[in-house]
Each structure stands twice: as structure tokens, then as C-alpha cells.
Amino acid sequence: QPLRINGVKVYTENVDKRQIILDLQISFVGNCEIDLEIKRYFCRAGVKSIQIHGTMRVILEPLIGDMPLIGALSLFFLRKPLLEINWTGLTNLLDVPGLNGLSDTIILDIISNYLVLPNRITVPLVSDVQIAQLRFPIPKGVLRIHFIEAQDLEGKDTYLKGIVKGKSDPYGIIRVGNQIFQSKVIKENLNPKWNEVYEALVYEHPGQELEIELFDEDPDKDDFLGSLMIDLMEVEKERLLDEWFTLDEVSKGKLHLKLEWLTLMPTAENLDKVLTSIRADKDQANDGLSSALLILYLDSARNLPVSYILMDTLLS
């Protein structure tokens, strides 16, 4: 089945004039016949269908004066796409040593390692384009997330076979692109206080969002307590947001966040001021707050020593 593009958004504001940014709503629903047989373990498995849905960003840059008018093409998903695989015979396959960890989640993680921000695929269209700078761009900024507290969450834990509704053991999962943070679990509390701080690099805006999901920790399957999506363009515009946000997809519950947008400065003139500021807040994060960003490009290597270990193994 061919790939479908359900919608295209072109950004015309707050973008570099030397690039074109497109967001494509990608939808692939494919019928397929994939059969796998492992004779040693007498098992068979297969895939009957696969679906993938998500927002793929396409960046055309740099724009040049000669054909093909575009120096390179970059592709990536702004966030993890939705993946659904219809397996057949998977139960027997998972009994095979080495394959018992196979799941849709593992496959989605592999996709994320290649195609979800900050990872991307960059295809040069002309020979003299600076491909390294396009594949590994300098972040647009740093988002400091103060994950403070929640209020009036739903009580998911039940007792006496559901007759008595108790409290929840809430924790949060915070995502910015492919960067994921998980808070500590607060036991038996519908008004938890986390007071944790996370820092995430932001590579793309507009279009990138802060995603937060709250869950109730359970021995079997964690219960959903609500979610939140915040446009990072709003955070950059305000520079500092300290608000209570109403949780989506649930009947009640609020989340208190303080969000700071930190801009990267090309010189160290304000470093002393930044260091003084973060010393005052040093107890907020487990590994301390950042004062600067180090970007290291590993360009090439030469005259490496030859390893004979593999050769000795082959000869023996």
C-alpha cells in the first residue's frame, strides 16, 4: 500500500529565510505477508499488517541559486509515531532464546533512534553542502522543566473488590522529542509534590511540544491519570511560565509546572551571573542545573592502530 500524506503545513513565520519547513501528516496502513520459520525451535510467526501514523518534518536547506535550488533534505519525526503491528504466531516465537524481548515497543525504540528528534536523516543534493552541520545542528534552546506538584488527581487504587476507592501512587513521564524523563513515585497521594527539575535540548520550533503523562503505579498495569501538551513556541515567547494546567483526557486533576526557556549565548560574558543563579537552586535537581552547553563534533580519525584480535581468532 502506498504511503498517504493526510495534510501538509508550511511554516512562514519565525523561520530562517534560507530554509523551507514542512510538516507532513504521515499515514501508512499496509497489508503484508511476512512469514518467519525457525526450524531448530519448530516455531513460525509472521506479520499480517502494519500501521504507522505521525508527524514528519521535512526541512529543505540551504536554498541555493542554482539547480536543484535546495542543498540538502532532512527528515525526522517530531515525536514518536504511532505503530501497530498485527502479529501471527508470536506466542511460540517469543519462546525462542534471544527473541523473548521482541515487541512493538522495541521496534518503535529502534525507529526513534534513527528518526525521532534529535535524530534525523539528512540527504545532500549538492556536493559542497556542510552535511555535518545539518545532521547535528546547534540546539535552538534549553527547556528547564520544574515538575512541581499535582492536585485533585483521580483515585485509581480500589479495595474490597472495587467497593472502596482509595488513593493513587502517581508519577509523571515527560517527553521532549526523543528525550524522556520519569519522576519519582509518590505513594498514596492525590495531591503529590515532586519538586523535581529536568533540562531538555530543543532542536526544532515551531512545531515541537512538551508532552507529559501522569500514571498511577500498580503491580500489573499502571493506570492513566491524565496528560498535557504544551507548545514550546509559547514558552519561548513568555521565557518563563509558572502555572497550574488542567489535565486532559480525565475528569479532574491539575498539574503545577514552572517552565523556563534558556537561550544559548555565543560568549561566556554572563557565565558568572548564571553560576550564581544556579547555585541558589542547586538542590532542585539530582545532578545539578546546567550553566553551559558543550557541543563536541567528532569529525574524523587517522592512523589508528590495527587490531589483530579478529585475525588471530580466524587463523586459530
UniProtKB/TrEMBL annotation:
Q: Where is the SMP-LTD domain?
A: 1-126
Its membrane topology, per UniProt?
Peripheral membrane protein; Multi-pass membrane protein
Query: Which GO molecular-function terms appear in the entry?
Result: calcium ion binding; calcium-dependent phospholipid binding; phosphatidylcholine binding; phosphatidylethanolamine binding; phosphatidylinositol binding
Q: Which locations, inside or outside the cell, does it occupy?
A: Cell membrane; Endoplasmic reticulum membrane
Keywords carried by this UniProt record: Calcium, Cell membrane, Endoplasmic reticulum, Lipid transport, Lipid-binding, Membrane, Metal-binding, Repeat, Transmembrane, Transmembrane helix, Transport
* Predominant place of localization: membrane
- Domain C2, by residue range, is 125-245
Please provide, in alphabetical order, the Gene Ontology terms of the cellular component aspect for this entry.
endoplasmic reticulum membrane; plasma membrane
The record's annotation in InterPro entries points to: C2_dom, C2_domain_sf, Ext_Synaptotagmin_C2A, Extended_Synaptotagmin, SMP_LBD, Synaptotagmin_SMP
Please, one GO biological process term?
A: lipid transport
List, alphabetically, the PANTHER family matched.
Answer: EXTENDED SYNAPTOTAGMIN-2 (PTHR45761:SF2), EXTENDED SYNAPTOTAGMIN-LIKE PROTEIN 2, ISOFORM C (PTHR45761)
Name the family the entry cites.
Belongs to the extended synaptotagmin family.
Protein name, per record: ESYT2 protein
What is the organism field in this record? Halcyon senegalensis
Its gene name is Esyt2_1
